[in-house]
Amino acid sequence: MPVTTRKVLRMTFNTATGKTVTLTLPDPKADLTAAQIETVMDQIIAKNLFTGQGGDYLSKQDIKIVDTSTNDLFDPPAA
Q1: Global confidence as pTM
Q2: Which residues make beta-bridge pairs with 4?
Q3: From what superkingdom does this record's organism come (predicted)?
């Protein structure tokens, strides 16, 4: 029954239609800074790299690095 961990970077943007959209990237570098992430988010907005149902990305709303630990408590018997 292994314990697994996972880290993701979540960058949340405000869109042209007033909605929010989140880009999630796995395994961010350990020494990644908020300033570096904000610079990338600014480039995404300025270059209009992504668009979706919410329209163009207009501004930054949030940045999070989420660290999840999962403890698998059950292993089904082999058939």
Answers
A1: 0.84
A2: 70
A3: Bacteria
